[in-house]
Specification:
By secondary structure, the protein is of the alpha+beta class. It is 44% helix and 27% strand. It contains five helices and six strands. The longest helix is centred in the last third of the chain and has 28 residues.
């Protein structure tokens, strides 16, 4: 097996067997990405608005856009009977993450099987990251498909977990 460097993390995941050939999963994957890649999000990320936002409060601007997205989601929910996300069969805890990998608390995977899932990642704004992954052991998965922006947030979250781990280790070293 590959040499994977994991960092302790506590995340929730819902998933089920399925790959990027399943049209239902692919449809949900792209619809969840569009929630984060909407025109307001693109506008907020543009370099021009970042320069203008230096003069205003970036956090306030982001909160306002998130409020707008929530109103859009509520409007969509009221207009259609379709749920925003598919109900997935399995719900588990993740105990560690790595670059392109994650580890489940229990042995719940079938080696070589492909899965679709959504991970609750505590980024700002909080959201579910849709991913496709493959089991490389009974409790370790390799990410096959993740949106580029989600990869950046995943890496940032992993680095934050690493910093916490380093601070905890330094705290223990100071005790001796």
């Amino acid at each position: 097996m590959e040499n994977i460097r994991f960092v302790k993390a506590s995340l929730k995941i819902v998933f089920e067997i399925g790959d990027s050939q399943n049209s239902e999963f692919v449809k949900e994957y792209y619809s969840l990405i569009q929630l984060n890649d909407d025109s307001l999000g693109a506008w907020l990320r543009s370099s021009k608005i970042r320069k203008e936002a230096d003069e205003t409060n970036q956090v306030l601007l982001t909160l306002l856009i998130e409020l707008h997205r929530k109103v859009d989601n509520l409007t969509q929910t009221m207009k259609t009977d379709e749920p925003l996300v598919l109900p997935l069969k399995n719900k588990e805890n993740l105990v560690a993450i790595g670059h392109g990998y994650f580890q489940f608390e229990n042995d719940v995977l079938e080696v070589g099987e492909k899965y679709y899932g959504r991970i609750d990642v505590p980024t700002f704004p909080k959201r579910e990251m849709p991913i496709f992954f493959e089991a490389i052991s009974a409790n370790i998965a390799k990410i096959i498909l993740m949106h580029e922006d989600d990869e950046k947030d995943w890496s940032a979250y992993m680095m934050a977990c690493e910093r916490v781990m380093i601070r905890q280790m330094k705290g223990r070293d100071d005790e001796y």
